[in-house]
Amino acid sequence: MEEKLRKSFGRYVTGVAIVSTNYLNDQAIGLTINSFSSLSLNPAMVIWNLSIKSSAKNIFTNCNNYVIQILSNKQANLAKIFSKKNIFERFDEVKKTMSPSGTFMINDNFTAWFDCYNYKQYVEGDHIIMIGKVEHLFYSEINPLIFYNGKLNENFNS
């Protein structure tokens, strides 16, 4: 059933994002996600899912803020970098900057980004549902990177 479920979910087009935060105040940590969605306009809130097996589970569940960066169709390489096994080496390959809340993020041109307060979490099944209150945001007209049928797709045109 799990394999059929994975393939069925793969038939749904999603965007691709990187979520980043600070570890011990001076190290940038990040990972690739495709389980991101808006939750509420008022108050402004977003939702994403983190595997309970993630090596970053304790870092993200205990951080104050995180930044969700929506990848553009020119950033498939970032999705691959931030899905590597060693979470502590992912930012070594990119330039970083600070968000308005003082949270590490990648210094690049994104489709959008959301600087969030780590508001609530719920464990359901094999994931942690992460809810963030949006404190700052940015958007552009750059086309997004999409994930479909288990593959990154750079050819989305609006």
TrEMBL record:
GO terms for molecular function: FMN binding; monooxygenase activity; riboflavin reductase (NADPH) activity. InterPro entries: Flavin_Rdtase-like_dom, NADH-dep_flavin_reductase, Split_barrel_FMN-bd. Keywords: Monooxygenase, Oxidoreductase. The keyword Metal-binding does not apply. SMART domains: Flavin_Reduct. Residues 9-154 form the Flavin reductase like domain. Belongs to the non-flavoprotein flavin reductase family. This is Putative monooxygenase component. It comes from Candidatus Kinetoplastidibacterium crithidiae TCC036E.
